[in-house]
Amino acid sequence: MKLFNLVVLFLLLSSTPVKALGLDEMQESATRNREIVKRYQIMVEKSAQEVKRVRSGYYPSLNIGYQADKLDESSLYEHRENSSIYSTLSMNLFAGFRDRYTIESAKIMQKVEGFRLQGVEQDIQLAVALRYLSVYESQASLTVARDASKTLERIYQDGKRRLDVGLIGKNELLKFKVDLDNANITVQKNQADLDKDIQLLGRAINRSVSLEELNFDEFALLPQLEDQKVCKEKMLGSRSELLALQGLTESASVQVKAEQGAYYPRLDMVGSYSRYDDDFINGEGEFTDEELRAQVVLSLNIFDGFSRESTISQARLSVREMQYDQTELQNTLVTDLANLFIDYRVSLANVDVAREDINHAEENLRITQLKYKEGLQRESDLLDAVTNLSRARYNEVAVIRTLFANAFRITRMIEGFQYRSSSS
């Protein structure tokens, strides 16, 4: 009885269905676990630290020091052995708004790093979707190849029976055998392609995955996208690469203002304390002298060899450079989006044609088989009918694959993949 219960339990456990792994879950896994995403997250964190660093200009600076001296002989103002301890507290009061614009530029660069991270996440999600689509295509192609192999196997076995009763010759049977062997080779090749695509999908999501986990529900219905004009507006308003270049342009413009601060005077306030002692160890000597000093320092550079002019000119050229890059990228993206929609519409229209061709090829094979059994069709006609049906089914797989590939790429163009990491 115990053995029976164990067997029943084992059967129940073994029959438990494998949890389906959807595209959204795979994209989330990739975005969470891929090291390239973590690298860009570090870049965002570094930019946040840079904002903190440049804020230091608003804080005072405190320095302390200790100095011991030994002279060959004492002088009127300094003993032969002496030491001094000192400290300074300084703070910049005005530097031509340089600190303000530097901080503003650093904040913009922090946003730019966030846009770069967002773009990487979108690229990874696109890669996962295309890898998933490749697995679907390979699995569908394998199914087509197996169906063709089974059909040819039935024809071959029927041919052997017909050969035994003298209805066909051996050379005709060999034609069936050659096509059957070729179909079996195709099955093995498609199986290898499917196994490799599963491995590549696992690499894309950074975890192991099996075919049993994939149900391909996402491909049950044809994709429906928004109007091209709507997608264009979304792309121009949300594409991370464009937003990053806009941020770089803005940062470069702010940097020009920061560099122009060199034309303004600089105002610093300094407080210092020093204690002189005629011994190496301060506080152990016989003579000490203390000084407490407060200073307000106003300075203005009159000439620096045209360094300021060159620096500001470089900053202005950087702004123009970013503007050109932004325009080029925008034009390229608009063109790519238009071409993707052309391919998408063609593929969408071809789906119905490919499915209609399958119906025609199936009917053609049915009629050819009937005529062949009646001796009204040759063996080559029957093999051609099988080949035509396989080609029609392969065409449908290829059209579906192209359709979804274009849809995924359009989704990437408009930053349409949903998952974002916490650092985005």
Could you explain the architecture of this structure?
- This protein is of the alpha+beta class and 424 residues long.
- It folds into two domains: 18-59 and 96-265 and 305-413, Outer membrane efflux proteins (OEP); 64-94 and 267-299.
- The chain is 66% helix and 11% strand.
- The chain has a four-stranded antiparallel sheet with strand order 1-2-3-4, with no helix packed on it.
- α3 packs antiparallel against α4 and α8 (307-373) packs antiparallel against α9.
- It is elongated, with a radius of gyration of 38 Å.
- The two termini are 58 Å apart.
Distance between the termini: 58 Å
The CATH architecture of the largest domain can be named as Up-down Bundle
Characterize the biggest β-sheet. Answer: 4 strands, antiparallel
Count the domains: 2
Q: Could you tell me the strand content as a percent range?
A: 5-15%
Major sheet strand order? 1-2-3-4
Summarize, please:
The protein has helices at 2-14, 23-33, 35-54, 98-164, 170-205, 228-238, 240-260, 307-373, 379-413; strands spanning 61-70, 81-94, 266-277, 288-299. The chain is of the alpha+beta class and 424 residues long.
Which terms would index this structure?
9 helices; 424 residues; Outer membrane efflux proteins (OEP); 4 strands; 2 domains; disordered N terminus
Tell me the layout of helices and strands:
Blueprint: H1 2-14, H2 23-33, H3 35-54, E1 61-70, E2 81-94, H4 98-164, H5 170-205, H6 228-238, H7 240-260, E3 266-277, E4 288-299, H8 307-373, H9 379-413
Antiparallel strand pairs: 1-2, 2-3, 3-4
